Each structure stands twice: as C-alpha cells, then as structure tokens.
Amino acid sequence: MDILLKVLLIIFSIGLITVVLLQKGKSAGLSGAISGGAEHLFGKAKARGMELVLERLTVVMAAGFFILSVVVAVILK
C-alpha cells in the first residue's frame, strides 16, 4: 500500500512540475506583477483554451500532491 502511494506521489510531483513549466509567464518584472495582478483580478485578461486547461490542471495536481503527501506521511508514521 505504501509503495503504491509513493509511486502516485512521484507521478503527481512530476505532473505538477510539468504543468507549471508548460504555462507561459503572465508578465515580467515587478511592474508586470503589480499591473498583471490587477488585470487578472478585475477580469480584463480572461484565460481561454489551453491556458485555462493548464490552470485548472495545476490546481488539481497541486491538491492531489498535497493530499498524497499528508497521507504518505501519516501512513509511514
């Protein structure tokens, strides 16, 4: 059981790294971070297509990674 969970954790971690690296940067530098966040907050730049899929997949992979990390830590303890 613990080997299966460890393998799933490795798969989720590699998947999370891959999904994050596939996304393109929202903006560059500190000025871009300030203005880019405001545009994203107020909905001026809505994600469409592949960007939206990658964003949702990132959330799913991160949640799965977090949950599996906690489960593996509890089982191994």
Mind explaining what this structure looks like?
The protein has helices at residues 2-22, 29-41, 50-76. 79% of the residues lie in helices and 0% in strands. The chain is elongated. It is mainly α and 77 residues long. The two termini are 14 Å apart. It is built from 3 helices and no strands.
Write a brief caption for the model.
This protein has 77 residues and is mainly alpha-helical. The protein contains 3 helices and no strands.
Architecture blueprint of SSEs:
Blueprint: H1 2-22, H2 29-41, H3 50-76
- Give the total of beta strands: 0
**SS summary, helix count:** 3
Task: Give helix % range.
Answer: over 70%
Terminal-residue CA separation:
14 Å
Low-confidence runs: none
Alpha-carbon Rg, integer: 16 Å
**H/E element order:** HHH
Instruction: Tell me the strand percentage band.
Output: under 5%
User: Describe the biggest sheet?
Assistant: none
Mean pLDDT comes to 81
Structural class: mainly alpha
Broad shape: elongated
